[in-house]
Structure formats: C-alpha cells, structure tokens
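ok so for the tutorial part 2 we go from a plain amino acid sequence to predicted structure tokens. step 1 is just haveing the sequence, like this:
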Amino acid sequence: MNKDDIVHLAGLSRLELTEEEIATFPEQFNAILDFVDQVKNADIGDDVVRDMQNYNSFRLDDFANIQGESREEIMDAFPNRSGDHLVVSKVLPN
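step 2 — the prediction. this is what the tokens look like for a chain of 94 residues:
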C-alpha cells in the first residue's frame, strides 16, 4: 500500500489522519499483509476438520414453547393497551 491508498482508505473510513500518521501506515499495512500471507501459507496438517456443516442457528419464534403466563394473562395485567397492542412510554427522543 502506498500513500495514495492510505489517503483513499482513510477517506472511505471518514478518518482524519495527520501527514505523520499517513507516512507510517504504508509500512504497517504491508507488514500486516505479509503476516496474512504467512498465515494463509502455513502448513496446518491433515488433523484439521475441513468439512464444517452450515446450519441455521436461529431458534423458532414459537410462543407456545414459552413456559409461564399465557398471552391473555399478560395482556390483562398490562396497564395501558390499545386494542391488541401494549402501550409503552417513549424511550428515544424525537
């Protein structure tokens, strides 16, 4: 990476860098990229598991599985309602 690359990247990141900072970054970035190349080329052997299963880790949004009060009990206990909606105080300013 050269000085122009650093200035461009800083602009995309909305960073304000001094000339001194800009001068030090190319050497640091190149050292980081060299290290990444070393990691990519490292011999990791055959013991590493390479077949990872992709799966959806989200749970089902199933109200019936929740233990405790029923929907009606919660609605009846809530002080402010508008139809089937619970009315709460505003948290964020305009």
